[in-house]
Amino acid sequence: MPRQYDSVTIATDSADPTQGVSPELLRVMLVDDHDLFRTGLRNLLEEQGVHIVAEAPDGNVALQLVRELAPDVVVMDLNMPGMNGIEATREITRLAPLTRVLVLTISDQDGDVMDAILAGACGYLMKDSSIQDLMQGIRAASVGESLISPHIASKVLQRIRAASVDAGGVVARPELSDRETEVLKLIANGKDNAEIAQELHISPKTVKNHISNILMKLQIDNRIQAAVYAVRSGLV
Predict the structure, then answer these.
(1) Would the CA dihedral through 13, 14, 19, 22 be positive or negative?
(2) Which residues pair with 28 in a beta bridge?
(3) 20 to 30 A Cα–Cα from 101, which one of 61, 62, 146, 183?
(4) 73 with 18: CB under 8 angstroms?
(5) Taking Cα atoms as reference points, which of 9, 23, 224, 190 lies closest to residue 115?
(6) Domain range holding 121?
(7) For residue range 108-138, what is the model confidence (pLDDT) as tens digits?
(8) DSSP for residue 204
(9) Residue 163 within a domain
(10) Quick one: DSSP state of residue 18?
(11) Statement to judge: residues 131 and 45 lie in one domain
(12) 61 CA to centre of own chain
């Protein structure tokens, strides 16, 4: 069964489709300004069968390599000299939308988490995460799903709720169908695709189509941002 991460989960079409993602098929790039950490991380991931296509010490080099190599997933640090991880994530999302960014950092500050999510990150993990959680995050990102460390997920959504109340909860709402609104509410409540399908009595494929339409209409990149939108809109 997929692991529950507070109000943000890995979305699935079955019990856990990310388990079907073969590590050797994943082309991953590491971005971190600490050489020893990158080397250690590379060794750990290669032991899991992950194909590391490149490493970068900062955001500028990362952008160049993304253009050349188009990796599936970029594992991104935040605090780096020059172009930091937030800026690099934003640029990668804009220039290479098929390349997913998974943030791996020491910072659990609400501002950093929010900035990373809004920049387009598909997940946010701490550097003390287990290799199992990191692999789960990479697999999830590779199929366009999201993973966020459990101890910061609730803090972030609480902050969003508080900010929404302070602002009167006024958010511009694009026209979502009634069914899309139902799906969006369930996403924000931490339901995965299989659970949404079961609750609404529709197929997982139909759920996936609804989610694609929601992301397109809201002009956002991933489920985490969809959950943020739902909370800010007062839907949950």
Answers:
(1) negative
(2) 52, 73
(3) 183
(4) no
(5) 224
(6) 22-142
(7) 776 788 788 878 888 888 898 899 989 988 9
(8) H
(9) no
(10) G
(11) yes
(12) 22
Going by their DSSP bridges, the two strands 51-56 and 27-31 should be labelled as parallel
Which CATH number goes with the domain that contains 100?
Answer: 3.40.50.2300
| Helices 131-142/35-47 angle, 10° precision | 80
User: Are residues 40 and 138 both part of a single domain?
Assistant: yes
122 and 214 in a single domain? The answer is: no
Q: Contact, 12 vs 192, CB < 8 A? A: yes
* Cα 127 from Cα 144, distance rounded (Å): 21
85-95 and 110-119 helices cross at what angle (nearest 10)?
20
Model confidence pLDDT, tens digit, residues 46-98: 999 999 999 999 999 999 999 999 999 999 999 999 999 999 999 999 999 88
Domain count, the chain: 2
The SS3 assignment for 76 reads strand
This model's pTM is above 0.70: no
Tallying the residues shown for the chain, one arrives at 236
Cα–Cα distance between 12 and 151 in angstroms, integer? Answer: 22
Torsion sign (Cα): 225, 167, 178, 216:
negative
The CATH number assigned to the domain holding 194 equals: 1.10.10.10
Q: Cβ atoms within 10 A of the Cβ of 94, count?
A: 11
